[in-house]
């Protein structure tokens, strides 16, 4: 028996696991330290009342013989939720049929699992810096990776090099980790490139609900031609505080076919074999997010985080630190002060200010010298963290 040797090519541990271990070691050495966590993008506000009510109702149903549900008849989601999500897309002018919406337990799993559908010989194009899941899952399956530089010079929004051909392309907008957002013209360039190369565009829209500027796209399917080349991944984690609930969705249009084979049909086949669906209670909770009350409540929660981002941006400006993001995005991507390396800054911020962030280098080589902060924290703690940073850098 041989183990998958590709695992030897991975970083020793997943970025957020490495950070959690460092934080645990710090707390062991400094028991009772008043840490403020702005590292992993985990939400802090509770689920909204509409969601809680739907969960209570669904739990009651599960407690009665007549309304109890066992295995879901379709691991891709109950029709009520697929329809609600398709309706959400329609609300901002994007065509999506419920049958093209696949409910899953979060964008991370779907983004990671989608690679099962693709040949190992395919070349993968990944921006750097990037959400580590795109890299790790392809390394695990032994695919060749090409990196695309995202830098200050291109606003961390790289465009394709026509001289480079790729089969699988990852994009994330609003971007994790940099907070940068592609406009329609830029996404059109990507869609045209993918179609010309016969490539698939894997579009991570997990942060779409943070887009406030109307002219910026929230979905790749707002771009003409995307239905022929793209898959979109989205999540309720950041939109509706579902990080602990686990629910997301993947949209695969009918038009997406390679060699006459429907990608949606392959995904359905994969999920049918390896996935038993998201729990009924969670799906009812997710459905409630898309009701008028749910959407209004979610908007309130989002504005709380947006206010955090504003406070953080102001503080960085006051400190004279260059950054991007924080508008249309819950992430702020700052240059490390004093030319520190990103892990050096991580250690200093943890040791001297008891604030945890994410070193840019963890997202790729172009992240070296940068640092990511999230706006998902408690408002008072966020303000306190920025004050601590100011004191530390004075
Ligand atoms: C992040 O901090 O990058 C995200 O929260 C991680 C994730 O969504 O898996």
How does this model look, in words?
This protein is α/β, with parallel strands linked by helices and 394 residues long. It has two domains: 13-42 and 295-392, Aspartate Aminotransferase, domain 1, CATH 3.90.1150.10; 49-290, Type I PLP-dependent aspartate aminotransferase-like (Major domain) (Aspartate Aminotransferase, domain 2, 3-Layer(aba) Sandwich), CATH 3.40.640. The protein has twelve helices and 15 strands. The protein has helices at 15-29, 49-62, 79-91, 107-113, 132-140, 184-197, 237-240, 263-274, 280-289, 292-318, 342-353, 379-393, and strands at residues 36-37, 101-104, 123-128, 144-149, 168-172, 200-204, 230-235, 248-251, 257-258, 261-262, 323-325, 331-335, 355-356, 358-359, 370-374. Strands 2-8-7-6-5-3-4 form a seven-stranded mixed sheet, with helices on both faces. A four-stranded antiparallel sheet has the order 11-12-15-14. Strand 9 (257-258) and strand 10 (261-262) form a beta hairpin. The mean pLDDT is 97.
Total of DSSP H or I helical runs spanning 4+ residues = 12
Residue windows where pLDDT falls under 50 for at least 5 positions? none
CATH topology of the largest domain: Aspartate Aminotransferase, domain 2
DSSP strand tally: 15
> Could you give the order of the helices and strands?
HEHHEHEHEEHEEHEEEHHHEEHEEEH
In this entry the ligands are: D-malate
Under the CATH scheme, which class of the largest domain?
Alpha Beta
Radius of gyration in whole Å, from Cα?
Answer: 21 Å
What is the structural class? alpha/beta
Distance between the termini: 58 Å
The helix content, as a percent range, equals 25-40%
Mean pLDDT: 97
In which order are the strands of the major sheet placed? 2-8-7-6-5-3-4
Shape: globular
Number of self-contained structural domains: 2
CATH-level-2 architecture of the largest domain? 3-Layer(aba) Sandwich
Strand content: 5-15%
What kind of sheet is the major sheet? 7 strands, mixed
CATH homologous superfamily assignment of the largest domain: Type I PLP-dependent aspartate aminotransferase-like (Major domain)
